[in-house]
Write a structure and sequence with these properties.
The two termini are about 20 Å apart. The chain has helices spanning about 1-15, 30-35, 35-45, 45-55, 70-75, 80-90, 105-110, 115-120, 135-145, 145-155, 170-175, 180-195, 210-215, 220-225. Helix 7 packs antiparallel against helix 8 (about 115-120), helix 7 packs parallel to helix 9 (about 135-145) and helix 11 runs antiparallel to helix 12 (about 180-195). About 55% of the residues lie in helices and about 0% in strands. By secondary structure, it is mainly alpha-helical. It has 14 helices and no strands. The chain folds into two domains: about 20-125, Ankyrin repeat-containing domain (Serine Threonine Protein Phosphatase 5, Tetratricopeptide repeat); about 125-225, Serine Threonine Protein Phosphatase 5, Tetratricopeptide repeat.
């Protein structure tokens, strides 16, 4: 009975909790149309123009109205060579925009595994605390079942058991914000195989396994038992 009450409380919290993915603010069409200079070049993935503008002393860490730098814009557009050019010209790969997302977390939410790898190679920090939820790129990727990104972040040393301000770990989010499908199961398995703590409960004391049982996620239960 106690477990059932705790589950209902958690379900109510899930109903009102915003999605980590929805919190990101990619540039709108109006933003893209208004961009000039380095922002426009980053949005277009125009490496030659980025290099020319940087040579002319354009600021690689300038901000738009949402606090996004040209690097954030290039990451949203999956412009890998542009990201490399911007970092080479002094862009800070670890800066956060207004919603507190860095390049790695933007790429994690986009399921852009290659951009995650590029950002880490260029000095991106897979351990960074990002988003308004005080989470990590690993938690954001686990939430969405982006299992390839999860494995890449694990290999880069992302913290397995970080608890965000919703009191959820990456493993917890792979269950409570997942759908029990193959990619979320693969995500949970990658986390468990890497040593994630299966016993860390939410703020109501409900563990990932108990959540999986409540949802009848059979494959997830097999991973977590």
């Amino acid at each position: 009975m106690i477990l059932r009450i705790a589950y209902l409380v958690c379900a109510l919290a899930l109903a009102v909790a915003p999605s980590a993915a929805m919190a990101q603010t990619p540039p709108s069409s109006a933003d893209l149309n208004s961009y000039t200079g380095l922002f426009n070049a980053a949005a277009q993935g125009d490496v030659a123009r980025i290099q020319a503008l940087l040579a002319a002393k354009a600021d690689p860490n300038a901000r738009d109205g949402q606090g996004r730098t040209p690097l954030h814009i290039a990451a949203f557009g999956s412009h890998y060579h542009s990201v490399r050019a911007l970092v080479s010209g002094g862009g800070d790969i670890n800066l956060l925009e207004n919603d507190r997302y860095d390049v790695i977390t933007i790429a994690a939410v986009k399921d852009d595994e290659y951009m995650v790898k590029v950002a880490i190679e260029l000095g991106g920090n897979p351990k960074a605390i990002t988003s308004r939820y005080d989470g990590t790129a690993l938690i954001a990727a686990a939430h969405l079942g982006h299992d390839g990104v999860v494995r890449t972040l694990i290999a880069a040393g992302a913290p397995l058991d970080h608890i965000n301000n919703l009191h959820w770990t990456a493993l917890m989010e792979s269950v409570v914000l997942g759908n029990g499908g193959p990619r979320h199961v693969a995500t949970a398995k990658a986390l468990v195989d890497a040593g994630a703590n299966k016993t860390l409960a939410d703020r109501n004391g409900v563990t990932p396994l108990q959540h999986a049982r409540q949802r009848d996620y059979k494959a997830m239960i097999d991973v977590l038992q």
